[in-house]
Amino acid sequence: MAFVVTPIFAGVTLFIADIEANADADTDSPDIPHGLGAIPLDVTITPLLQAEAGLSLWALTGLDAVNLVVSKSAAVGSGAAAAQLRLTARIPHTLVQ
Q1: DSSP 64
Q2: Whole-prediction pTM
Q3: Is residue 68 within 8 Å of residue 32, measured between CB atoms?
Q4: Taking the CB of residue 42, how many other CB atoms lie within 10 A of it?
Q5: Is a pLDDT exceeding 80 seen at residue 1?
Q6: Three-class SS state of 92
Q7: Which one, of 16, 24, 22, lies nearest residue 3 by Cα?
Q8: Over the Cα atoms of the chain, what is R_g?
Q9: Which DSSP category does 89 fall into?
Q10: What is the pLDDT of residues 49-61, one digit of tens each?
Q11: Is 39 strand, coil or helix?
Q12: What is the pLDDT of residues 30-45, one digit of tens each?
């Protein structure tokens, strides 16, 4: 089964989504559109499930003005039927640009 991307917040300067990878063999996410209109200057990946996320070795592998891409390992036990990762992307607010 493929990655499941659940947007939590999609604003003008901030995008947050939870990522679920059900199967161990799920390794590369599809393009995740962030809608920020520019390359995010700050991207944070936060594990949500300690054991599964630890086995998954999550990494940000793609970043541009339209999409984000994350990947994980195919380690046995790395798949889970719950959100494993929170992805947060930010661009500076116009007040600080």
Answers
A1: -
A2: 0.89
A3: yes
A4: 10
A5: no
A6: coil
A7: 22
A8: 13
A9: E
A10: 877 777 888 899 9
A11: coil
A12: 899 999 999 999 999 9
